[in-house]
Amino acid sequence: MKNVVSPLHIMRVREVYYRVLKLLLLMLTPVMLWKGLMVWTDCDTPILIVASGDLYPSFLARGDLLFLTNYKEEPIRVGEIVVFKVEGRDIPIVHRVLKVHEKENGTVKILTKGDNNLVDDRGLYPPGKFWLGRGDIVGLVKGYVPHLGITAIILQDYPKVKYGLLVWVGVSVWT
């Protein structure tokens, strides 16, 4: 007697493939959108969530969602809000530009300060470094949406909520 594959078995296999593809599409869509934003804004971090209150109450609060660009030909001016990263710190810092020194050879020196801080950021820079260079700048803030990133902060502060949400998404996609 030959092994006959029933149509019901074929439908089940197709359904499993369909659900796996649906889950992959759900997981890869944000990655594709992120990579597209990186190319469009010329910025490795085109969207960022404010994690501290250094610019509050004058401008940004914890949980605000920032939109960044980092075009090399775009000048950085005093008063603009920039995101920078320095050696020895994993988290980018969002502060306002306090001073800018531009030289004729194209080099730029930048000093930053949080609006809610009493002193400039030289204490945050690596030892012996008193100014930021253009290479330290992650991006310039071009816009923001208040409080939209608070969900991400909650998920980071409470990992059980994050894992519960991941299980819920997986189950709802699978069913």
The tally of beta strands, per DSSP, is: 6
Largest sheet: 6 strands, antiparallel
What top-tier CATH class of the largest domain fits best? Mainly Beta
Q: What is the gyration radius calculated from CA atoms? A: 23 Å
Mean pLDDT: 89
CATH architecture of the largest domain: Ribbon
- CATH fold title of the largest domain: Umud Fragment, subunit A
Strand order of the largest sheet: 1-2-6-3-4-5
- Specify the structural class: alpha+beta
Counting DSSP H or I runs of 4 or more residues, the number of helices is 3
Show unreliable segments.
none
Task: Describe this structure as you would to a colleague.
It is a single chain. It contains 3 helices and 6 strands, in the order H-E-E-E-E-E-E-H-H. The chain is an alpha+beta fold and 175 residues long. The chain has 2 domains: 1-41; 47-148, Ribbon (Umud Fragment, subunit A). A 6-stranded antiparallel β-sheet has the order 1-2-6-3-4-5. The longest helix has 35 residues, at 7-41.
